[in-house]
Amino acid sequence: MDQTAINQTAAALIAARRAALGADSFPGALPSDLATAYAVQSAAIAQWPQPVAGWKIARVPPALEDALGTMRYAGPVFAETVVDWTGAPLLLPVIAGGFGAVEAEFMVRVAIDAPADRIDFTPDEVGAYVGAVHAGIEMAGNAVAPVMTLGPLAAIASFGNNLALIIGPKVADGLDGLASVQAETTIDGQSVGTGHGDKLPGGVATAMAFALNATATLGQPLKAGQWVSTGALTGVHAIGIGQSVRIAFTGIEAMTGETVAAQPAA
């Protein structure tokens, strides 16, 4: 894809997300490699009116890791989509006719600005960048209904397949002890998955190292105060409009809510 095609695909994805209406196919050309997928994502970020307030980190399906040369990918989280949980029932957005999923995740508050010229962080070196760790919910979401079938390149290009982050209570001041904090996701009264920090390959520290390296590579190094959603602890659970959700973490009050139709962007 040349730059014109990249910009056209980004514009089509922006229009679909703004309209909050699902599409049966990927609008524009489907990227064929990581560099192109991230180029489309970057073009869309540049045209979106809200600033980036954080990043979601997600797994690449194991069967595709070798072909893509990565275990994870990153996507932007926009300021307008970050919600602090107040204890009241949540309204969780799903794009009508698109794709929606709910995920229990650890949300890391970035403590200090990351360097723009370093892309070789290891898990042992991320501590200084980790502020408080919170329980949270990622609403994965996309106007492209078959995004999961199309694969991670489609997800990367289309805003990283993220629609919202809900920031719940603090569970730790750093990365120590997260293995003992368990999460459970319940949909319509049925438990659909449990897990804890060690369920993430390499743990939360490895996810943070990836976030530091990936965002710097994209020219958007992590900034103090941003959030990193570090990966699904209990699985990725597809969900439609009008369903009830309960996300419980060890030792804190459960977050509950209902999925509602996402509203068109202004």
Automatic annotation (TrEMBL):
Taxonomy, superkingdom: Bacteria
UniProt organism field: Azospirillum griseum
One Gene Ontology cellular component annotation held by this UniProt entry: cytoplasm
Matches recorded under Gene3D superfamilies: Fumarylacetoacetase-like, C-terminal domain
Signal peptide: none
A single GO molecular function term of this UniProt record: 2-oxopent-4-enoate hydratase activity
SUPFAM superfamilies from the UniProt entry: FAH
Protein name: 2-keto-4-pentenoate hydratase
